[in-house]
């Protein structure tokens, strides 16, 4: 199965991922670990791995990456076959080491935001 670079964030400013999970990794050449989300971009019909996370908008169940792209994380966590394949391939291509599963930390933030403020604007 081939792998390719996604469109630029300017060309595709937001993407919805289903069947997702978050991971902390160490990439050779970087001083500090980074967190990435892997998931399935349903409209593309393929797996996707984000660039490093820059911020989390727990109210909207989304993350903003270092590229500036916004990823909305739809549904519950858990990688599908395509998402798992792309994640494993990404690790090999970047020679990255998976340090930890960061999914539960994101889920906790989403749950806390949902409990504190109800539904995100525009979702009622």
What does this structure look like?
The chain is an alpha+beta fold and 124 residues long. Strands 1, 2, 3, 4, 5, 6 and 7 form a 7-stranded mixed beta sheet that branches. The longest helix is centred in the last third of the chain and has 15 residues. The radius of gyration is 14 Å and the shape is globular. The N and C termini lie far apart (39 Å).
Alpha-carbon Rg, integer:
14 Å
Domains, number: 1
Shape type? globular
Q: pLDDT under 50 segments (min length 5)?
A: none
Tell me the helix content: 10-25%
Multimer state? single chain
Total of helices: 2
Question: Element order, helices and strands?
Answer: EEEEEEHEH
Largest sheet: 7 strands, mixed
Relative strand content:
25-35%
Average pLDDT value? 88
Can you tag this structure with a few keywords?
2 helices; alpha+beta; 124 residues
Give a brief rundown of this model.
The protein is of the alpha+beta class.
SSE arrangement:
Layout: E1 14-26, E2 34-41, E3 46-49, E4 53-57, E5 62-65, E6 70-73, H1 81-94, E7 97-101, H2 103-117
Parallel strand pairs: 1-6
Antiparallel strand pairs: 1-2, 1-7, 2-3, 4-5, 5-6
């Amino acid at each position: 199965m081939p792998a390719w670079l996604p469109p630029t964030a300017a060309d595709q400013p937001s993407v919805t991922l289903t069947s997702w999970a978050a991971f902390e990794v160490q990439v050779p050449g970087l001083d500090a670990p980074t967190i990435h989300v892997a998931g399935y971009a349903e409209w593309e019909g393929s797996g996707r791995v984000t660039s490093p996370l820059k911020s989390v908008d727990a109210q909207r169940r989304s993350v903003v990456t270092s590229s500036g792209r916004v990823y909305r994380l739809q549904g519950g966590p858990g990688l599908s076959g395509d998402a798992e394949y792309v994640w494993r391939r990404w690790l090999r291509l970047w020679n990255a080491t998976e340090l930890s599963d960061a999914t539960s930390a994101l889920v906790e933030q989403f749950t806390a935001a949902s409990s504190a403020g109800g539904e995100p604007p525009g979702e009622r």
